[in-house]
Amino acid sequence: MIKTGATAGVDARGFTLLEVLIALAIAAIIATMSYQAIDGASNGAYRTREVMGEINQLDRTWQIIAADMRQVLKPDPGPRGLRFRFEAESLRSSGTDAEQILIFFTRRGWVNPMERLRSDLQQVSYRLVEGELWRDYLPERNVPMDQRDFEDAALQQLLLENVVDVQFRFLPLEWIQQRGPSVLEGPDYTRDWESVWPQQDRGSEGATALPAVVEITIEVEGMGRSARLFDITH
């Protein structure tokens, strides 16, 4: 005799409470691991964008500095004193606490796409204020301008943040003439170059001279130090 009924050949048992709890625990673990993976990937992508932004900003700063160094004018005595100046000094303190003008000079080659009646000369300075590197520039007025007037009137351009240090090294032209290629020999050949310009021991003669080569080193927090050499002889 064949038995019939709803339970024939079927296991009617459901899930126990323990099985449900285990399933929920596994699901929670998987969800946590997935969230951590997604969060880690998101943070990594954000940091990558942040680092790339900092690298691009540093590269842009070097491009601006290079453009300025290519156009530096030699100091020129004028009827009312030294008309064009080139003065520079390495940072004397920690970048986060500093408030110092690093370099001041006059450059030519200011682009004039509108062909206005104006000079193509600019007075330019770089200064560091509490870790921020600024470029200040002002049209050349053909008259000497003291530092206070320049700071008050100049246009200001923020180049870099979190700057720890800025150092200069200057190679005088006469060193090349006197020593020849030896001034460029060795792994640390800029170590003995001048750190201040004009040269302090040359008086008025030094104030009207340009260095042959300038080395600029910038240290940014989290990015380390980077250096560039610029030939400014024309």
Describe this entry's structure for a reader.
- The protein has about 230 residues and is an alpha+beta fold.
- It has one domain.
- It is built from 4 helices and 11 strands.
- It has helices spanning about 15-70, 145-155, 175-180, 205; strands spanning about 75-80, 80-85, 85-90, 100-105, 120-130, 130-140, 155-160, 165-170, 195, 215-220, 225-230.
- The strands form 3 sheets. It has a 6-stranded antiparallel beta sheet, sandwiched between helices.
- The longest helix is centred in the N-terminal third of the chain and has 54 residues, at about 15-70.
- The N and C termini lie far apart (about 115 Å).
- The relative contact order is 0.13.
- The model is unreliable at about 1-10 (pLDDT under 50).
* Proportion in β-strands: 25-35%
- Backbone structural class: alpha+beta
Average pLDDT level? 81
* Element string (H = helix, E = strand): HEEEEEEHEEHEHEE
Q: Give the biggest sheet.
A: 6 strands, antiparallel
How large, in whole angstroms, is the Cα Rg?
Answer: 32 Å
User: Helical content, roughly?
Assistant: 25-40%
Strand adjacency order, main sheet = 7-6-5-4-3-9
Tell me the number of helical segments per DSSP (H or I, 4 or more residues long). Answer: 4
Any idea what the shape is? elongated
* Ends apart, CA distance between termini: 115 Å
The low-confidence parts are 1-10
Overall structural domain count: 1
Could you tell me the number of beta strands? 11
